[in-house]
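Q: Could you predict the 3D structure of SLC10A2 protein?
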Amino acid sequence: MESFPKTSTDEARGGDSTAFSLPPLLASKTWATNTTRNDTASPTADDGGITSIVMDVVVTITVCLILVAMGCTLDVQAMLKYIKRPYGIAVGVMSQFVIMPLVAFLLCLAFQLEPARALSVLVVGTSPGGHMSNLMVYWLDGDMNLSICMTTVSTALAMGLMPLCLWVYSKPFTTATTVVPYEKIVIALVTIIIPVSVGIFLKYKSPKGARLFLKIGGIFGIVIILASAVLGGIAYQDMWSGPPAIFLIAFIFPTIGYSFGYVIAWLFRMDSICRKTVCIETGTQNIGIALSILKLTFAPELASKIILFPMLYASFQGLEAMILVVSYQIWKRKCKITEEKEEEKEIGDDTKEVNLLDDDASTKDEDVYEFVTNL
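A: Sure. Here are the predicted structure tokens for SLC10A2 protein:
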């Protein structure tokens, strides 16, 4: 494995550093610190025991709900339209599987992450687009059909491109204890077809039932994600403890994704609606799939280290997306008020012009009457 040189600070401390951790309510114990550079936090006995098993089940249910919901949102006619002219989808796929994995790799190198944590960043960076992006695109007045198509196509292509990207970028971080289980990842990704097909079938048989599932599933999905965080904190009590770099990467990574997505769409001369769509699709990763792959395919002894980053990324990508949505809605409302004022002003000016024309017409009539009378 490629090793990174120690800094002078590390040598002065004997390679030790203090890790950063979340408050007690999230960590399920006192503010945790770790005195080793590698942050060798160990899980509880039997890798979390029954709590760990429950968390595996919860993660699996979460991913299934997300994928069934994805199937319920599919519009076959719209997909055929974009497949015939796949320009927008191609730009989105390039952003998703070229830009994001590369950015993840560069961030891991720049912050010199240890192998286990670097792999968690890479898995998130190589994940397909998340279902949450469709909702964000709707609030930003983006192209909903393009958003759904991009999410679906990226999820389908992830079965091949995600293992490929991991194989390309994970080599510097692979050791005897941190091995990427490619076969398990491929199997896990192939099983995506089943819940998506269930969602498509549900929409085909009962569109009303599909809409109801989306409403209920959205609320239920949030509850399950929160439950996953709580169960993770119980099963792996040091899960919320990590180096400051992992928190910083989780904050800047979505921002880079949103920014690059918009710039790339602009470079390809896509209209403003499509630029907003590609922007959100690029920065919004499918954390459910990333979390399930990390939790269900990697070695159990790595769980306490690799679960933290997906949780943090999910929090920051949602927060930053909501900031974009709120900012846009405020700007939209201001523009609407300005347009209404301009319309009122134009109507007022038109009314004045009509009054002046009427006055001129009445004056001319009086002049004609006077002229005829004089005759």
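Q: Anything worth pointing out?
A: The CA atoms of residues 42 and 173 lie 20 Å apart.
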